[in-house]
Design brief:
Largest sheet of chain A: none
Largest interface: A-B, 40 and 39 residues
Radius of gyration of chain A: 18 Å
Oligomer: homotetramer
Structural class of chain A: mainly alpha
Helix content of chain A: over 70%
Chain lengths: 193, 193, 193, 193
């Protein structure tokens, strides 16, 4: 099976997801800066979601570099990840309108929980078709960031019911942790273009 | 003629189709979970359509792997498939709003009938340029799933006029049948990445 | 300069153009077939535009197959074509709402005139960097279809002011002429995948 | 790390950005040419933004041709550029509605300032992983156009508060300067397809 087309399709889906989110960022009705100010929460949530999706693309890119083989289960595990990422614009639009309310903030965290879990499943599905001393296995290692993120999202969803702003802080913190490039995989791949 | 660019274009169209459907999934107006509940039918129909389009991508991916040559007729047969897939967001948005009404459920089935028929035509058009003992011919075999799906969609459209929920059940059942990976082709292709 | 990335970018733009047109095909408000009937003009115009854009992709695909070199002028000639194709959804949405009115039908023809002219310029720009006995030059030949289409669109725009339905007939006729695959280029390229 | 997938992802994002802008170009409500006239400012701003994004794609295409290696910092510098480009449809839609008002014109310039700065950072990040006598370093040279554009956007933003039309003139002038193809890189690359 071809890794190339899996990458190409994932790239296309992620590119559309990251781009169409801006369609939900409606231009202000008026023509003053105070009209733009009303859009600031939407804009900040958009930036958070852009960073999240960019992190997924970067990690997916790194991950696929060390993949030696795929099978039907990998295709579906990848499709599952793309499904959750496709819901990010929906969650972003809702939380952008109501950044202080429990339901939208919990829903946003739930979508991220789904995406994080899907990414974790994808790594396990890939490990299942690679040997224990493959570059992939070495690169992933104990994968504490992947596991921690899933726990953090779950905590965020729970906390959103009590205090949405703390949940938002958790989401931002997870993004910051991931912004550090995934050296695990960069370590084992040559950096020639 | 280049198979690569046919794959790339199909990937891009399918990626956009699967992703823009979420644009029709409008965020709730209010900020409570009961507002989100109103969107549950839309969300379920979205999931069904996502699975359908994902199945088409997976099968298309498998199918093209064993293709040895294409011609102008294949390009148009493929374009016909993409046309029907491009209508899926329209049918999804309508059925998502009215999941209990005959017309939207029949229309949804009609679009799937079109896509299923188009996929079947695509396989026949490909077989016409391959020998009877080509990997493609072996991989497709008697293609009972393809034929059965087309029949099931036709039945679904008819049943939708009497009882939309049964039609919906048929659509879900077809998706489940296809979720089983197409081993016919996986059998004859190496799984190296 | 890389032909591959020019193809990839054009594919992506054309794939998005052909797909997002369906976003302007709003689902009916009601849930009956008569509500769907109101959308029939939009749907027919959508089909016409889908066919047009599909023809451009097919011809672009064929054309690029025999291209041996490109330069900066080709990149911009191609971008000009993509610009006019990007206006097709706008023209489609307007004519779909008002298929009997002069202005939308003339505007639709004007966009097609722009796209047809841009395609013609692209072929001339490519010929300028190929020798007179190159496969490209042989494949294009006298290019009567390209020249005739541009004339037909111009006539269509003019006629739209008098009788929009005749203009629509001209647009459909041009699409039918182009649906015949471009044998000129298929003749000179191998059909191995 | 793979340059190819970076190009493919950037192509897809830029293709979506350049294409979805037309979704904000709503078809006129009425069916006369005077209804279309109301859309002329939107259309002109759309053309300006299309040209801007096309220039970025062209320059990105040229730039990546001479890149020999990338690293994690390049991926993020590129993502930063894509972020600013993703805001172009938002800025275009707002300025298209209010082309004579300070806030939208300043906001448009601010987005271009962000994109121009991001492109400049991308070139510096690339230079950091190339030697001083690499084709990349020779091709970029002193990069006066990149530096001048950033200054021009900053001036445009400031001027917009006083006289929006002058700011618009500056934006158009920068686009014209860039429309001249980037001979610096074309000089050092073969033009075989």
């Amino acid at each position: 099976m071809s890794r190339g087309r899996l990458e190409a399709f994932s790239d296309a889906v992620i590119a559309v997801v990251i781009t169409i989110m801006v369609l939900d960022l409606r231009p202000p009705h008026g023509d003053t800066f105070s009209d733009l100010t009303d859009r600031v929460p939407n804009l900040l949530v958009y930036i958070l979601s852009f960073v999240y999706v960019a992190i997924y693309w970067n990690n997916h890119h790194h991950l696929l570099q060390v993949v030696e083989r795929i099978n039907g289960a990998v295709l579906w595990a990848n499709m599952n990840l793309l499904f959750w990422l496709s819901l990010v614009p929906f969650a972003t639009a809702w939380m952008g309108e109501h950044p202080r309310a429990s339901a939208p903030v919990a829903a946003y965290g739930f979508v991220q929980l789904g995406a994080g879990t899907a990414y974790f499943i994808l790594t396990r599905t890939l490990l299942a078709v690679h040997s224990a001393d493959s570059p992939l296995a070495h690169a992933l290692g104990r994968d504490w960031k992947g596991k921690l993120s899933v726990v953090a999202y779950a905590v965020g969803v729970a906390v959103a019911f009590v205090e949405p702003w703390i949940a938002l802080g958790i989401y931002v913190a997870v993004a910051v942790v991931w912004l550090v490039p995934d050296r695990r995989i960069e370590r084992v791949t040559p950096n020639e273009a």
